[in-house]
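User: Some background: our group keeps a shared notebook of sequences we're curious about, and every so often someone picks one and asks for a predicted structure to add to the entry. Today it's my turn. The entry only has the sequence so far, pasted here. Could you supply the structure so I can complete it?
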Amino acid sequence: MDLATEILLYVSSAVIIHILVFYFVMVTKKKGRNIKDKHVVVTGGSSGIGLWIAVTCAKQGAHVTLVARNVQLLEKALKVVEQHRQDASQRLSFKSIDLTKSYDEVAKSLEEVEEQNGPIYMLVNCAGMAICGVFEEITPEDAQFLMDVNYKTAYNCTRYVLPKMKHARDGIIVITGSQASLLGIYGYGPYAAAKFALRGMAETIAMEASHLGVSVTLALPADTDTPGFENEEKTKPEETKIISGSGGLHKPEEVAKKIVSDALNENFFSILGAESWVVTLLCSGMAPWGGFLFTVLQAFALIPLRIISYFVRGQFTSIVRKCAAQKKLRQEVKEKKSN
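Assistant: Of course. Here's the predicted structure to add to the notebook entry:
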């Protein structure tokens, strides 16, 4: 067999394997859990992905409680969710809670939520935001804020529901990370640190609680057209916009629908789109993603992807260097004009 034939066979095999892996991740269906008449709590539910997750759950007949801080936004969000009510018996409500407060304060508020709408069957941790910038330019106060609003909020809520779900031997926990939970990107320093923490928490809880009937899903949405993304864009360095902009912008309703579907199907990762799938495959490590056959397929798919990732990383480095050169040139021009 000549070299050209060998290469052709290898490339053909790689393509087939990638199609099979993508099929396993994106297409295959299994009988999922049912949330009809069960209580779903969505943090960060006043807008964006959280709001559309609440809408998706309401469409499936769940009792839904929206949790956020801003009462006015919560009132508006509840009106949107009400439009998707399936029957008069559904309990749709909101609760204003500052989830960055102490655990005891958050637990007390969640107890009140359960008294009103029943035990929490599904918790969707969707509260969070990003502040972008070069690592040393983000203030210590902002870095702490990012850890509080992204990690501490999820920790407080999950710590409250987890022992109850273990005792009931039933329940679903969704932790919303992002692609920044998988790899560090220029301009995302403290934000990525908080999102990496969420991944560690999700993997730990999955190992501790899956045998007790508690399903854990780590959602990894790419850039999504939400109010939070609009605010994020205001602080993004030029390098970050170029690097992260290649994946396009997803609609929040599509992302929400995928997250709920993956959670009900007990998938550990929830991803949408080919680019997110590739990044997740490259960075999944020992995460509980799929069975033995799927793991074997991943192993074969990783060979060419790991090589491709080397050149992608090189492209990222090239972007950073090019932007640095342009900044230096602009600074020199500015100094000449001022002299």
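Suggested note for the entry: The chain has one domain: 31-289. The domain at 31-289 is CATH 3.40.50.720 (Rossmann fold).
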